[in-house]
Design a protein that fits this description.
Radius of gyration: 31 Å
CATH architecture: 3-Layer(aba) Sandwich
Strand content: 5-15%
CATH topology: Oxidized Rhodanese, domain 1
Number of strands: 7
Shape: globular
Distance between the termini: 108 Å
Number of domains: 1
Structural class: alpha/beta
Strand order of the largest sheet: 1-5-4-2-3
Largest sheet: 5 strands, parallel
Order of helices and strands: HHEHEHEHEHEHHEE
CATH class: Alpha Beta
């Protein structure tokens, strides 16, 4: 049953893709297909070009690929993944972005949802662009993973940035084990403790 549903979904997506290609190429030079419908379906089923949010997190630390945001410019301006380039879905086949998609580096496409990214991937792959992948789960899924990984944006704190010089504090600690710290991060000299006079005094 699940397999049947998957095939129905694939057919629907492919049908939508064909309509979109026709719309995008309206009043523009025609693009020739490099892959048949069966070939693009088989390529999709292999899932070799699907990137999970977790894998994207690892890839972003290496930063050796292109991240393509196909959302609306208004959404992109509000917030987007680091180092992403905005290519609105309606302009996918524009001459302005031909050099970008022809770049030999790996290109990962993402949208607000996985479906839109998949459609863009199918369109660009069918007309011959190489090294294309799409993000599973969409933008929100990716941001959740990236924000959850605290090591992703964490900056290492060097000794020079420490608020207090703990080695200096240790040297100035008195026998009573107490010391004071000023707001500037420097230790104040401890107040000397006067020894009490013994109540039992006297001599030989």
């Amino acid at each position: 049953m699940k397999s049947k549903i998957n095939w129905i979904l694939i057919v629907v997506i492919l049908f939508i893709v064909l309509i979109i290609i026709g719309f995008l190429t309206l009043r523009k030079p025609a693009f020739s297909y490099k892959m048949t419908s069966d070939e693009i379906i088989q390529k999709y089923l292999k899932a070799e070009d699907a990137v999970s949010p977790e894998n994207l997190n690892d890839l972003m630390k290496k930063n050796d690929f292109l991240l393509v945001d196909i959302r609306k410019p208004s959404d992109f301006v509000k917030k987007h993944l680091e180092n992403a380039v905005n290519v609105p879905f309606a302009d996918l086949l524009s001459e302005d972005y031909k050099s970008l998609f022809s770049d030999p580096r790996q290109k990962i496409i993402y949208a607000n949802n996985e479906s839109n990214a998949l459609q863009a991937w199918m369109i660009l792959t069918q007309i011959g662009y190489q090294n294309l992948k799409y993000l599973k789960g969409g933008y929100n899924a990716a941001t959740c993973i990236l924000e959850a990984d605290t090591s992703f944006n964490r900056k290492q704190i060097s000794d020079e940035n420490l608020l207090y010089d703990f080695s200096d504090i240790g040297q100035q600690t008195t026998e009573t084990g107490k010391t004071t710290v000023s707001s500037a991060g420097k230790t104040n000299n401890p107040v000397p403790v006067k020894p009490r006079k013994s109540q039992l005094s006297g001599g030989c």
